[in-house]
Structures are given as structure tokens and as C-alpha cells.
Specification:
The complex is a heterotrimer of chains A (372), B (480) and C (269).
Chain A (H helix, E strand, L loop, with lengths): L9 H24 L23 H22 L4 H26 L10 H15 L4 H22 L5 E2 L2 E2 L5 H11 L4 H4 L1 H13 L7 H16 L6 H4 L13 H22 L8 H12 L1 H24 L12 H25 L4 H9 L1
Chain B lengths: L21 E5 L3 H13 L5 E5 L28 E3 L7 H8 L4 E4 L4 E3 L2 E3 L2 H26 L2 H6 L15 H5 L4 H15 L8 H9 L7 E5 L4 H9 L4 E3 L3 E7 L5 E7 L2 E7 L1 E4 L3 H4 L3 E2 L2 H14 L2 E11 L12 E4 L5 E5 L10 E8 H8 L3 H10 L12 E14 L10 H5 L8 E3 L9 H19 L4 H11 L1
Parallel strand pairs in B: 1-2, 1-12, 2-8, 5-15, 9-13, 12-19
Antiparallel strand pairs in B: 3-7, 4-7, 5-6, 9-10, 10-11, 14-17, 14-18, 15-16, 16-17
Chain C lengths: L28 E6 L5 E8 L3 H5 L8 H12 L8 E5 L2 E6 L2 E6 L1 H33 L1 H9 L4 H4 L1 H25 L9 H12 L2 H58 L6
Parallel strand pairs in C: 2-5
Antiparallel strand pairs in C: 1-2, 3-4, 4-5
Helix pairs in contact in C: 3-6, 3-7, 3-8, 4-8, 6-8
The chains are: A mainly alpha (372), B alpha/beta (480), C alpha+beta (269).
Chain lengths: 372, 480, 269
């Protein structure tokens, strides 16, 4: 704790590390075993309630990107950065992440996946939007987030979202219309409704990190709203459901899912802030010291964990069957995937610690060098 | 102090010479220096000013010499200056401030009568009973009603009005009704009055009484000696100064100019001037011969109107150690010796000295009578009269200096009947370029001398200005 | 006023003889006089019999020894730098915040006490105003920084600014009430009490201190008022900006919907 830089919140680091760990678990199990969903092969649903927390990884990560950006702006202002310098840095970071996202899609996945609008390109786009949002009053940002959530189902309904998804994967044509719609509505992490997470994280950060429990009920209200949408699902028209099969889906991010994960994230941030951000608390010391390096290098870990499990999968499949995708989602048993994920997370934490100790360049340090 | 309004209808109309006009100022005392300063300040043309001073120093009765026995300064003339800024604009204070001279306030409230100190009403009541106190308070109330601070401030101006009765000062003093209270008032003001109450007006007497009230005026001195004021001022005047040059005669010429006859080292000289300003005390003015008959007659009328001589006598004692500080931290005390005299404790005026200085200021008949005595006799009387707090100084006097200021001021400044300001300063209407200036025309103070000088200088400056309608108006405003 | 004109002899039972400094005449006594604002004044009364003082021109008590004792006693007070000792003819007045001593013939002590207590009351009020003004003055830099900021802190700072403004006005009101006493012209003809009061006022530079406290209060008042005004302007500007941005957001969302509708497979026949 004593080595923490000013303005860095322990709760944010712990939650981001937890999101990374969840993401690793999700991706390992999904990509190596494919056994997380329902028996019919659909996306995770209420029938697998034990899997429900796994859907929190991306919401927490994107929400925290908004919170972190708010803290970063404040820190830069304290250091005397001008508004122009802050804008330049923000735009560079946004385009860097978008470019990295495209590169990642091509290198880790396949060239035809370049415009599948994964989380890196989304966060890059989100940062570009926040460059505008930071000039708005917080109330307007909340309004924008609410609009994004509200119109997303209607947009999905208008675009025919299901037509872009084949066997649980995003499938698009290389046309300008599909690429644009993919970024806005139909991709893995489209602007509508995912932009709501960083926007709300950005606007709510001062309030959430003010050290008060007063904002806690908002998270409960969001969860309650999610529950109400879920309960009333069958009565809702298509323009509201967005054509989703069930009330709680991550792809597409249904309204219930967005509200529920927002509420859960809100509660998590509030509680963790109260527990961990009260100075040199012995209660949070070991957790924070473990989580901070992982959080600090979350981008690198995102890249690394894909390389660590996708490339061997491709290589082994190619070597044994001649088809790189032959072992996709059926390489090993789910339990083994879980075990591998756990090993990776522990190893990743150590790698991050070593990177800090030996000043090894990482994706984050490269981004700072290039963009700041 | 006095606002000077120049009546444009009496501005001279003759043509001034093309060369720089020659101006003679007779007298190098405060009035003469003030006139020279103001003319140089206000004149829009180059002027050639000559100051005639009968002695070898400028400054007149503002004089701060040193003792011989030790390099210690003392005030031989005016010991204090008057601060009117609590009431209104004070040009003298502004001039001193403008010259960069530091000033120090002077305070004192104790009157020593019959061996007792009366420093406040409580003392008066304790020593002489309730009636004396009540009578004094009644007189004070009457005095302040008779002359408000503003009236006090404007006294001497043409538009000055006050409820003070046009009687001699002994009338209101008689009305006090308590011998002790009357004696207290007389002792308090006698040395400043420099005359006897029966020889001056109630208004002038009241002025001298009311100046003890800070609401009317405050006293101050110039750090390092009051004479610094004169020397600093003289250093900033470009006028030619003829020292030890006694003007004996002034003659009006047919072309409107004047021939000034002056004597120096037994040689008589004549010089011609366009304008002559006589800045002398009344007694010295009487020593000048005016050869033109109408002028001589006008000057005689002027002298007769203002011939009310008042007298000072200064006795300064150098003590071999700093004189004891008066327990009220007063800078001066009033003593009923010599008909009422002021004793200045000057030890604190020069912080580096190891000697004390006690300065007596005697006024009125006592000053006049004692002035005829030899210095030793005056000194002995002054030492014997030292009040009890200074009794220990009697045997330790190293040196004593006596300065006689006989007829140096007017007992009735402005005369018994106040004349218009213009007439006061230009005794002869047929000689528009001959002026008089002096404190005796106002209130026998340096402030009055400065007012007088300002008036004369404004007039002279107007005379010198090109006589166009526009410039006449501007010049009149400037003079005002 | 709070001064008590009762003669010294009538209150000898109030004396706290245990706290008397050593070396004073046996008749000396000490009283505790309450002052405005909860402060108290330890008043040491030292009768100094001086037959010569009232009978002859030898009016001055040799008060050197008493002066030294009183000065030591004063310097033991909290703020000894402010201590003044004024010998006034056959009387002696010494004062420091919270402590005062008067010495003189018994028939003068009542007048001295009136003057000292009256002065101490006004000085205590002025000192309290100075203290409050100094506290406000320290916050000015923060107020100015708030005024310059554009991140909404000014708006959050509003209640503190309002409180400071009210405090500055309250100080100004108290100083105004005090002004008539501080700037009162010297009494003429003087009384013993007026002479003591005026000397204490001059020696403690009460007029200058009053002016300074007033200027400080006015400065804080001006800054607080200007900062509040600035905060108000910021608040209004933010409301206007919020409205403008809300319109922009709605237009952007509308445009996005339009674009999606145009580009969607269902939107095109």
C-alpha cells in the first residue's frame, strides 16, 4: 500500500484484477471446453445460475475504464496538464486501443475477424467518447448512458440482430454498412448499449469514491429494475426486448443484463471502496498487494491470456488434424480449463509483479510512452 | 487655510516688461520664503526674485541654533507648528510633507498653579473645589459655542463668521466668575497669546484657548529642529538672496516701478523692481521709509491699523543630564510664573544627546519687561522659576541662551476691525504692485504667514500672466 | 458600559490576595472583572499614598519599584508583548491583555478603574474581532482558488463561502459598533479617566488595529461575495451548459438511430 501512487484507489485495482481473473476463467472454459452454457448450446442463461457471475467480467472492466479515466484526468490536472495536452493524450490512447484491437483480432483470431468489435476496440471507442463526455455536466452523461441503454433494444430490433449471430458467434459481411452497424449495435461489444458502462463509471466516480454509503441504494435500485424487466419480459414488445430470446443475455447485452450488471458493479465498487480505501487497512493489504500489479497490467494480461490459450489451441489442432479450429471448445474437460485458468491467473500475477520489479516493458508502458 | 478668491476687477492693467519681471521680497523670514516659493510655483513666466534679509540667516523666528557647551539643538523661536488637518485642508502641513520633513506630535495638558499641578478637571476639583471646575466647564462650553472648529479654521478669511463677541478678551475672562478658573485659563494661554487679555480681541484670545482642544487643532514639531523647514524651503527657492541687506527705503517711480534702497556694510544701494513685496513684522515695517507721499500715507494707515505689538522671550537652559521626563509624558507644561509661561521639555527632541534642554517661553508684559534685563538676570529668574519636577535641574545648568522677540508678532492680528483680505495685502490702491505679507495679517502663526504668502503670490502670478480673457480666468482659478 | 464606579474600598472583599505579586504595598488588592465575550480582567489596585502629591508641586510618586513589579506581573500574562505601562503624573496604569494594574492616591483609583475597565472591554472586543478576521483571512486563498476553478468545486464551496460572508458581515457590524468608541475625539477639558483612556488607546494603537481589522473584514467580505457571485455564475453556466449538452446528446442518439436505420438490413428494402 505504501508504494501506491497518489490518486490510485485500491478498490479499483482489486475489482479490475477480479474482472481479469473472471475473464480468464470465462475465456479458458469457453474456448477450450465450451461447456458453460445451456445444454442446447445457447449462450449462458438463467438455467446455469452458477455461471451468472461470469457475465460480470466485461461490465466491471468497462465500468472501471470510465472510473479510471476520471481519476486519470484529475491526476493529470494536478500535475498541471493543460486541457489540450489531456485531449491529445486521450485521443491517442483511444486510437491506440482501437488499433491494438484490430491487430489483436487479426493476429490472435483470424483476419476476417478484424471488425468483430471486441472489447479493446470498444474501450478505445469509449475513451474517444469520454473525451467529449468529460466536458459535459455529469447529469448529461447519465442522461446519455440512459439513452444508450434505452435505445439499444430498438436498434437491435431495427437491425435484425439475430441475423448477424450464427451459432453463438458474430458473423458479418465486409461492407461499410455491416462494419458500421457492427460497431454501433451488432458486434461483440457495440456502442449500444455497452457505452453505458464507461459513461456511468466516469460520471459516478466522484460520488462512488467519496467515501459515503449514501449512493449504495442506487445499485439496489438497478438490480431491482433488472429483476422487474426480467419478470415482465414476456409482456415487453420486440422494440424493447431487442429480439433477444431470453431476458438475461450477454450477447446481445439485454436491458435486464445491463441493468443487473450495472447494479452489481455499482454495489461492488461502493462496498470495496468502503472496505479497502480507508488508508493502510491491514484487512485489505494482502489482497491489494496481489491485485495491484495485475490491475496495472490488465491490458497486457488481456493480450497474454489469449495468446496463452488460443495459439496453443490453434497450433495443436493444426498439428493433429490439419484444421486449426478442430479443437475449438472441445480441447479439454471444463474442470481442466478451470484449473488452467487458475494457474494462469496466479502466474500472471507473478509476471506482472516481475514486470514492475524489473521494469520490463508491457503494453501499458508502451501505451504511456506513445500517448502521454 | 484661507481660501483665496482673487477679484478680477482689481487686476493690474498696465503692460509688464518683456524681460523677466524683477520682484523684491523684503524680509527673509517665513513669510518672505513662503512668498518666493509660491511665486516660483505659480508664475507662468520666468521671474527674477531678490530677497533682502537684514541678518545673515533666513527663517526669521523659526530658529534652531546650538548651544556652545555641547552640540545640542534647541528651539529659540517658534517651538511648535499647528495642525489643522482634523478640520480641513492644511497647506502648511502639506508643504512640510511635500518637503519630506518628518514631524512629531507635541502634547501637554498640565498647568502648574501655586505649586500644584492641574492636569485635568479632577485635579482642578481636588485642588480648588467643585465650583472652580464648574466655572471652567461653563467657560469651555461657552468658548466652543462661540467659535466652532470650522470657524476657528476659517478665521481671517473674508467670509469668516463667528458668534464671538467683538470685545476685548478680558470681558469673557471676567465672566468666568471664578478667580481660580480664570487664572487657570490665563496661565494656559498667556505665553501663546504673547500679550495681555485686555490688549487683544476676544476672538484671538478664544483661538488661543481653543487650540488646547484637539478637536480644533493639534501641535507638532519637525524632527531635527523646526529650522529645517526654513533651510529646506530656502534650498528649493531659486531667488537671489541678499544677506545682511537692510532695506531702508522704497520709492515709487513714475513708470509704476519701485526703487528699493538697501544698506549693507555701511554702503547704501538702489535697485529698481517691478513688484515689491514687504514681508516683515510690523515693528520692522515701521523702519522703512516710503518716499512717495500717497504711498507713505497708505503705509502709515496700514501700520496704524496693525500696530499692536506682542512679545516673546525665549530662555533655553542646557542641563548636564537629560531632564526628567514629565510623569504625564508631556512635551511641555504651563506654569503660572511670569504671568503664565510655557516650559518645553526638549530633552527628548534629540535622542542622541546626553544633555537636557528646558525651554521657557515667556509672553506679553513679562517678556517685554524682562527683555530689558541683562541675560544673566533673565537666566537666573528662569532657573529659579523651574517648577518642582525640575528642581533638581537648577544646579546643573551648563549654559543658558536668551532670545528676545520683541514686537515679533501682533497682539491683534488683522487689527481690531478686520479688513478685506485684498486691502490687507495691498495697502495703497494707487500702487498695485506693492504688497505686504505676514502672519500679523491673519493669526500670528506660520499657517497665517503661508495663507498670506499664497494670496500675494496668486495675485502676482495673475499680474504676470498674459492678459487674455481665457488666461485671466485660468489664472484666477489657479490663484483660488 | 461595564465599568463599575464603586470606590475601591467597597470591593475589598472581592480581592484575591493570594495571587498578588510580592513587594506591593499591603493595601494592594486584586479583582476579577468580567469583560464582554466571556473574557475576564485581573485588575490589580495599588493605593500609593503620596502626601506630597496632593499638597505640593512635588506631584510625582517615585513609582519605579512598583513599576518594575507591575511590569513583571504583566509579562507573566499570556500576551506580554502588548503590555504597556503608563506613568501619569502621580498615577500609574499598566495593562496587558487579561491583566491590568492601577496605582495612585486612593481618591484617584475609582477614576483609573473606570478608564482601564472601559478600555479593556473595548480592546477585548477588538481583539476578538481581529482573531475572527484572521481566521477568515487564512481561508481567502482557498476561496480565490475556488473562484478560479471550473470543475464545480466552486458550487460545492458555496455554503462555506456563504458562511464566511455572514461571518465577515458580523465582524464588520461589531467593528462598526466599536468605531464610535475607538475614534471618539479626545475629551476637552480632559478628566483623569479620559486622559488614561486616550493614552491607553494611543499606546495600544487601537485606532490602527481597528482600521486593520475592518479592512481585513471588508477584504474577506469582498472576496467571499465575489466568490459567491462567481459560484452562482458557474452554477447558472453549468445549468445552461447541461441543457445544451442534453440537446447535443439527444441529437447524437437520434442521428445514431437514423444511421442504424439507414444501414440496417431491415431498413433497406
Amino acid at each position: 500500500m505504501s508504494s501506491r501512487s497518489p490518486g490510485r484507489e485500491a478498490s479499483i485495482d482489486v475489482l479490475r484484477a477480479a474482472a481479469i481473473a473472471l475473464m480468464v476463467l470465462v475465456h479458458f472454459v469457453e474456448n477450450l471446453s465450451g461447456q458453460y452454457g445451456g445444454d442446447d448450446g445457447t449462450l449462458p442463461g438463467v438455467s446455469r445460475s452458477w455461471w451468472l457471475p461470469m457475465g460480470l467480467a466485461a461490465p466491471v472492466f468497462t465500468f472501471l475504464s470510465g472510473v479510471s479515466y476520471r481519476l486519470l484526468c484529475a491526476a493529470h490536472r494536478r500535475r498541471g496538464w493543460t486541457d489540450t495536452a489531456l485531449s491529445k493524450s486521450t485521443v491517442r490512447r483511444g486510437f491506440f486501443l482501437i488499433g491494438l484491437g484490430f491487430l489483436f483480432n487479426v493476429v490472435v483470431w483470424l483476419p476476417e475477424d478484424v471488425f468483430n468489435w471486441d472489447i479493446l476496440t470498444f474501450i478505445g471507442g469509449g475513451i474517444l467518447v469520454m473525451e467529449v463526455a468529460r466536458r459535459m455536466p455529469d447529469g448529461v452523461v447519465f442522461l446519455a448512458a440512459a439513452l444508450v441503454i434505452a435505445v439499444a433494444p430498438a436498434m437491435r430490433d431495427a437491425t435484425g440482430y439475430a441475423e448477424y449471430w450464427v451459432a453463438g458467434s458474430y458473423d458479418y459481411d465486409f461492407t461499410l454498412a455491416d462494419v458500421a452497424i457492427g460497431w454501433l449495435v451488432t458486434g461483440y461489444f457495440p456502442i449500444f448499449p455497452w457505452l453505458a458502462y464507461p459513461l456511468i463509471g466516469f460520471a459516478a466516480a466522484p460520488s462512488l469514491l467519496s467515501g459515503s454509503w449514501r449512493r449504495l441504494p442506487i445499485g439496489i435500485v438497478l438490480l431491482a429494475a433488472s429483476a422487474m424487466v426480467t419478470l415482465g419480459w414476456s409482456a415487453l414488445p420486440a422494440v424493447v426486448t431487442g429480439g433477444a430470446v431470453t431476458a438475461w443475455t450477454m450477447f446481445p447485452a439485454s436491458t435486464a443484463y445491463v441493468l443487473g450488471t450495472l447494479g452489481a458493479t455499482w454495489l461492488a465498487v461502493t462496498v470495496m471502496h468502503q472496505l479497502l480505501d480507508d488508508g493502510d487497512s491491514p484487512r485489505g493489504h494482502w489482497l491489494v498487494s496481489w491485485a495491484t500489479p495485475l490491475s496495472r497490467h490488465s491490458l497486457s494480461m488481456y493480450l497474454l491470456h489469449h495468446v496463452a490459450h488460443i495459439w496453443p489451441l490453434w497450433a495443436y489442432g493444426l498439428a493433429t488434424t490439419g484444421d486449426a479450429r478442430s479443437l475449438w471448445q472441445k480441447a479439454i474437460a471444463p474442470a481442466a480449463s478451470v484449473a488452467l485458468a487458475a494457474v494462469f491467473v496466479v502466474a500472471a500475477a507473478e509476471i506482472c509483479r516481475a514486470a514492475d520489479r524489473w521494469h520490463i516493458p508491457t503494453a501499458e508502458s508502451f501505451m504511456r510512452w506513445l500517448c502521454d | 487655510m484661507a481660501a483665496v478668491n482673487l477679484p478680477t476687477e482689481i487686476l493690474p492693467t498696465h503692460t509688464m516688461p518683456s524681460r523677466p519681471p524683477r520682484i523684491a521680497i523684503v524680509g527673509g523670514g517665513p513669510s518672505g520664503l513662503f512668498v518666493a516659493w509660491h511665486i516660483e510655483e505659480q508664475a507662468s513666466l520666468p521671474v527674477d526674485i531678490t530677497i533682502f534679509e537684514a541678518t545673515d540667516r533666513l527663517g526669521g523666528k523659526v530658529c534652531t541654533p546650538q548651544f556652545s557647551a555641547a552640540a545640542v539643538r534647541y528651539e529659540a523661536g517658534a517651538a511648535e507648528l499647528y495642525d489643522y488637518e482634523g478640520v480641513g485642508n492644511d497647506p502648511l502641513r502639506e508643504l512640510i510633507r511635500g518637503l519630506g520633513l518628518p514631524t512629531v506630535p507635541l502634547t501637554g495638558s498640565a498647568v502648574h498653579m501655586s505649586g500644584r499641578r492641574i492636569a485635568c478637571l479632577d485635579d482642578l476639583e481636588n485642588a480648588h473645589g467643585q465650583e472652580a471646575r464648574d466655572r471652567l466647564v461653563a467657560f469651555d462650553t461657552w468658548a466652543r459655542a462661540a467659535m466652532t472648529p470650522q470657524e476657528f479654521f476659517e478665521s481671517g478669511c473674508d467670509h469668516a463668521t463667528m458668534a464671538c463677541p467683538p470685545t476685548r478678551f478680558d470681558d469673557p475672562l471676567d465672566a468666568i466668575g471664578s478667580p481660580v478658573a480664570r487664572s487657570y485659563v490665563e496661565t494656559m494661554i498667556h505665553s501663546d497669546l504673547a500679550t495681555e487679555p485686555s490688549a487683544t480681541t476676544a476672538a484671538y484670545g478664544l483661538q488661543n484657548y481653543l487650540m488646547t482642544d484637539p478637536a480644533y487643532m493639534r501641535l507638532y514639531r519637525i524632527a531635527g529642529g523646526n529650522e529645517q523647514f526654513m533651510t529646506t524651503l530656502a534650498a528649493r527657492i531659486a531667488a537671489k538672496v541678499r544677506h545682511t541687506a537692510t532695506v531702508t527705503a522704497i520709492c515709487s517711480e513714475s513708470d509704476g516701478r519701485f526703487t528699493v534702497t538697501w544698506r549693507s556694510a555701511d554702503r547704501s544701494n538702489d535697485e529698481t523692481f517691478d513688484i515689491v513685496i514687504v514681508a516683515l513684522p510690523v515693528a520692522a515695517l515701521a523702519g522703512i521709509t516710503f518716499r512717495d507721499e500717497p504711498l507713505a500715507a497708505a503705509m502709515q494707515r496700514h501700520l496704524t491699523h496693525h500696530d499692536h505689538p506682542a512679545h516673546y522671550l525665549r530662555v533655553s537652559l542646557l542641563i548636564d543630564e537629560p531632564a526628567p521626563v514629565v510623569p504625564g509624558e508631556d512635551d511641555y507644561i504651563m506654569v503660572d510664573a511670569f504671568g503664565g509661561a510655557c516650559l518645553y521639555v526638549e530633552s527628548s527632541r534629540d535622542p542622541v544627546t546626553r544633555h537636557g534642554v528646558l525651554g521657557w517661553l515667556l509672553g506679553g508684559e513679562a517678556a517685554s519687561t524682562m527683555a530689558s534685563l541683562p541675560d544673566d538676570a533673565i537666566t537666573a529668574a528662569a532657573i529659579n522659576a523651574l517648577p518642582a519636577p525640575f528642581a533638581s535641574c537648577r544646579g546643573r545648568v551648563l549654559e543658558a541662551r536668551v532670545h528676545r522677540w520683541i514686537g515679533a508678532v501682533s497682539a491683534v492680528p488683522g487689527g481690531w476691525q478686520s479688513l478685506p483680505v485684498a486691502t490687507r495685502h495691498r495697502p495703497s490702491p494707487t500702487h498695485p504692485n506693492l504688497f505686504v505679507a505676514g502672519d500679523y495679517l491673519y493669526d500670528s502663526t506660520l499657517n497665517g504667514a503661508l495663507d498670506s504668502a499664497d494670496y500675494v503670490a496668486g495675485w502676482v502670478a495673475s499680474t504676470l500672466a498674459p492678459m487674455t480673457p481665457a488666461s485671466r480666468h485660468a489664472t484666477t482659478d489657479t490663484a483660488a | 458600559m461595564t465599568s463599575d464606579p464603586r470606590p475601591h474600598a467597597e470591593r475589598s472583599h472581592d480581592s484575591l490576595s493570594g495571587a498578588l505579586p510580592a513587594g506591593l504595598p499591603t493595601a494592594a488588592a486584586m479583582h476579577r472583572r468580567p469583560l464582554a465575550g466571556g473574557e475576564g480582567l485581573d485588575l490589580l489596585v495599588v493605593p500609593m499614598e503620596s502626601p506630597a502629591a496632593s499638597a505640593s508641586m512635588t506631584i510625582d510618586v517615585d513609582a519605579t519599584a512598583v513599576t518594575v513589579i507591575l511590569r513583571d506581573w504583566l509579562t507573566a500574562a499570556a500576551d506580554s508583548r502588548s503590555a504597556v505601562v503608563i506613568p501619569l503624573y502621580d498615577c500609574l496604569v499598566a495593562w496587558a491583555p487579561g491583566r491590568a494594574a492601577i496605582g495612585g492616591p486612593p481618591d484617584r483609583l475609582a477614576a483609573l478603574e473606570i478608564a482601564v475597565v472601559e478600555f479593556a472591554t473595548r480592546e477585548a472586543e477588538l481583539r476578538e474581532a481581529e482573531r475572527r478576521a484572521a481566521v477568515l483571512l487564512e481561508a481567502i486563498d482557498g476561496d480565490l482558488a475556488t473562484d478560479e476553478s471550473d470543475d464545480g468545486r466552486a458550487r460545492e464551496h458555496g455554503p462555506a463561502l456563504a458562511s464566511r460572508y455572514r461571518e465577515a458581515v458580523a465582524i464588520g457590524r461589531r467593528l462598526s459598533l466599536l468605531a464610535s468608541a475607538v475614534h471618539a475625539p479626545p475629551v476637552h477639558p480632559p478628566t483623569l479617566a479620559s486622559q488614561v483612556g486616550e493614552r491607553l488607546r494611543d499606546r495600544t494603537r487601537l485606532v490602527e488595529r481597528h482600521e486593520l481589522a475592518r479592512e481585513r473584514g471588508e477584504l474577506v467580505e469582498r472576496v467571499a461575495e465575489a466568490s459567491r457571485q462567481r459560484a452562482l455564475e458557474l452554477s447558472v453556466a453549468r445549468q445552461q451548459m447541461g441543457l445544451e449538452w442534453a440537446i447535443v446528446v439527444l441529437l447524437v442518439v437520434q442521428t445514431a438511430i437514423l444511421v442504424v436505420d439507414l444501414l440496417s438490413r431491415r431498413g433497406t428494402p
